[in-house]
Amino acid sequence: MRYHIQKTVANCFAVLRQLRSIRRSVPTSVYYTLVVALVLSRLDYGNTVLVGLPAYLYNRLQSVLNAAARSITSLRRSDHIIDTLASFHRLKVLERSQFKIATIVYRSLNGMAPRYLAADLRRLSDMPSRRRLRSSFTDQLDVRQSQCSTVGDQAFAVAGARLWNSLPHDIVVSDTLSHFRYGLKTFLLRATAYML
Question: What letters, b where the CB count within 10 A reaches 16 and e where it falls short, cover 90-120?
Answer without folding.
Answer: bbbbbbbbbbbbbbbbbbbbeeebeeebbeb
